[in-house]
Amino acid sequence: MDHGGHGMTMDLPPFTVARGLAFTGEPFFLVGCLLALALYGWGVVRLRRRGDAWPVGRTIGFVTGVLTVALVMCTGLNEYGMVLFSVHMVQHMVISMLSPILLLLGAPVTLTLRALPSAGRGRKGPRELLVALLHSRYLRVITHPAFTIPLFIASLYALYFTPLFDFLMGSMVGHLAMMVHFLAVGLVFFWPIMGVDPGPHRPGFVMRILELFAGMPFHAFFGIALMMASEPMIETYADPPASLGVSALSDQSAAGGIAWAFSEIPSVMVLVALVFQWYVTEQRHARRRDRRADRDGDRELAAYNAYLASLRTREQ
After folding, report:
1. Distance (Å, whole) CA 181 – CA 78
2. In Å, how far from its chain's centre is CA 305?
3. What is the rounded distance in angstroms from the CA atom of residue 53 to the CA atom of residue 48?
4. Looking at the whole model, is its pTM more than 0.85?
């Protein structure tokens, strides 16, 4: 029997971790993940061949991010996510909050800018088009917190609490489009906050932390609303297959618990990354000030001492 008319079987056996992690190879995301790894690898190899270094940590971050996408989309989790709200919520939380953070830690935009050759004076190649995009008004709008925070919140409430979710889950294309949307929203939301790649909107560290915590509470509220509901709220998951051995209400409560708990994990990851970046930036500025002081004989300090001496002279 089909679920929602998109060919997903409804007589799946009860969910287990082994069944959920079994490789299924969903073709759309599998091809996308392999392509992302191939392009990133090409960029790293290109830099190394010309003698430029690329941090291993960034490569590990990006590869891990791609693997998390494959984990939730190319395994049995994708099939169980069509009939179990709790499993779907794992997919949603990973692909919208964990995967984007790891991918952005890999600095793919920076790698692309360094790997692509320049087209030459007066000509436009892929690198020049990317630079123009990074400075475009369009990107300034979609990376501004006035856009990213409402979009991040709407991806929960405007999707799950309207008929739009049931409509998208009615076909495999809709389901895949929704997952692509979750990934894109996560990338747009965390891009200016992470601050690893260049972008049009790059606030200070304090503002980045405020932006991070401005959106996270809404995930917790969403999860609590699901856990406290006395009846199924999502039509797609209102009648789970009997073969799964779960009730719709218990499954929904589990989904709410996942949404509530998962909102804390990315917050901690990003906060640690921001504090580390802040520390590194301050150390870099301190070294720059020390070098400047060595060059000019610490002229700034001497001027300040002279200013203090002049104040003492006036007081006398």
Report:
1. 16
2. 48
3. 6
4. no
